[in-house]
Amino acid sequence: MSVRVLIVDDHAAMRHSLAQALEAQADVQVVGQAADGETAIQLAGELEPDVVVMDVVMPCLSGIDATRRLLREHPAIIVIGLSVHDCAIYAVRMLRAGARAYVLKDGGTEELARALQAACKGRTYVSSGIEGFGC
After folding, report:
1. Furthest C-alpha separation in the chain
2. d(C-alpha 40, C-alpha 37), whole Å
3. Does the predicted TM-score (pTM) go above 0.90?
């Protein structure tokens, strides 16, 4: 059975790159892409993904706020936070919002695949490159 994924990032090149990398996984189907949190919430209702890969920092509605709203409406969806920020405060805020994983964008597609596998098995995953609270 294939894991249905919605990718949310305000940068089109990042969305495209993530979609290609995830589609290369045998058990992953990218069902949609969104450039902002509002669209992500709308598409989640329409597309019914299993997993949403959510950029943490986006204009208008942050990934943290979008995750809170998304999970209120669709609590069965798994959210994986994705960010360039290696400061622990972002990871903590994303996890408190309900995300099951926090992955750094520079971790590569292999790390995203590991996070996806862990999250789908009910485990929390956080990139090893996260810095302490001194940010």
Report:
1. 42
2. 5
3. yes
